[in-house]
């Protein structure tokens, strides 16, 4: 029987443990604060930011949401980030991606104080991760590490195929998985749109992490019965009944679930872990900035 991995359950467990850290901070007069910045009318982006704010509330993190008109200049956005950098009540800053075309994403990421960079996208945090001294780990890849550990799959000695080479998932994922630690120690192959014989590579993997941003790219025929499949895709496609949309992953669930050893569903798999690790980073950032030791899960 293929195991369907319950991301919500693992995320809830981590959140419960983070609540204890928030209490420790409170004993020292500190309330962790997360600022989210949204510069988009996109309804998916709005949904995700709302989910992040709600999750903060659940565990006692103070969320502050900033909305900017999509026409706002890059200078104005950068000014807003500067103010958040200087605000001591704000320990974490997240600018929801994507930003509009007239704003350069990399410029924005580099404006965020690296100590407040709860996405882990600032070059300083990327560099620290690659050199084996991670500070704030990118949320989705970190969540996947936790998920693999919590389900007992583990990563040490495993052949992992990462499909996708983005800065937010694929590249940090491959770097985290080769680290010399219990959440790493894997042998990693990173595949992408120019990879020859993708199916051959995924079929030989112990773990496949699908993060290409292509709906249902990976199907059951590309997997072996021993493969653990982690689906990072959150693609909105038109609903079959013509009403609204439905969420599909980068994995074709129906065929993959017949074949694989274990699989994460969409929704209810990686997504909830991403949010839990955002809370984790916010608590960690507060602990570092306020010099209060907490027992992070
Ligand atoms: N600066 C920045 N940081 C991000 O972390 C970031 C971002 N920009 N831009 C967009 C992506 C997307 N993302 C998701 C997080 C959680 C779910 C999630 O929890 N999804 C639910 C379902 C949600 C639904 O029903 O639509 C689930 O999978 O169960 C999805 C998507 C974070 N992102």
TrEMBL record:
GO-annotated biological processes: L-histidine biosynthetic process; methionine biosynthetic process; purine nucleotide biosynthetic process; tetrahydrofolate interconversion
Residue ranges of every copy of the Tetrahydrofolate dehydrogenase/cyclohydrolase NAD(P)-binding domain listed in the record: 138-288
Chain positions recorded as NADP(+) binding sites: 164-166, 234
Key words, A-Z: Amino-acid biosynthesis, Histidine biosynthesis, Hydrolase, Methionine biosynthesis, Multifunctional enzyme, NADP, One-carbon metabolism, Oxidoreductase, Purine biosynthesis
Keyword Transferase: no
Recorded catalytic activity of this chain's protein: (6R)-5,10-methylene-5,6,7,8-tetrahydrofolate + NADP(+) = (6R)-5,10-methenyltetrahydrofolate + NADPH; (6R)-5,10-methenyltetrahydrofolate + H2O = (6R)-10-formyltetrahydrofolate + H(+)
UniProt xrefs under InterPro entries: Aminoacid_DH-like_N_sf, NAD(P)-bd_dom_sf, THF_DH/CycHdrlase, THF_DH/CycHdrlase_cat_dom, THF_DH/CycHdrlase_NAD-bd_dom
Domain Tetrahydrofolate dehydrogenase/cyclohydrolase catalytic: 5-119
UniProt subunit comment: Homodimer.
HAMAP family: THF_DHG_CYH (MF_01576)
Family that this chain belongs to: Belongs to the tetrahydrofolate dehydrogenase/cyclohydrolase family.
Name under which the protein is recorded: Bifunctional protein FolD
Organism: Haloarchaeobius amylolyticus
